[in-house]
Design goal:
3 strands, alpha+beta
């Protein structure tokens, strides 16, 4: 069994760093895919990971775009 950390770690770090470096900005999965060059399902999974205690218990905000099925995400910065 191959550990996932070498593969997933860079994805998680890249996503977290991008969100931290763009406070108050909102991104769709497609926009994050373009910037980070990771597929949307991977990015979606890493957003869920960021919410977990072992990855920092970050608060990830989300909102619908135009009331449809498209969502935008942001890292809610804690004071």
């Amino acid at each position: 069994m191959v550990p996932d950390a070498p593969r997933l770690g860079p994805q998680l770090t890249a996503l977290r760093d991008h969100l931290i470096n763009h406070p108050d900005s909102w991104f769709t999965l497609g926009e994050l895919e373009t910037v980070l060059r990771y597929p949307q399902p991977c990015t979606s999974a890493r957003l869920r990971d960021l919410r977990k205690k072992k990855y920092g218990s970050h608060e990830i905000g989300r909102r619908r775009v135009d009331g449809g099925g498209l969502w935008e995400y942001t890292l809610v910065m804690k004071p």
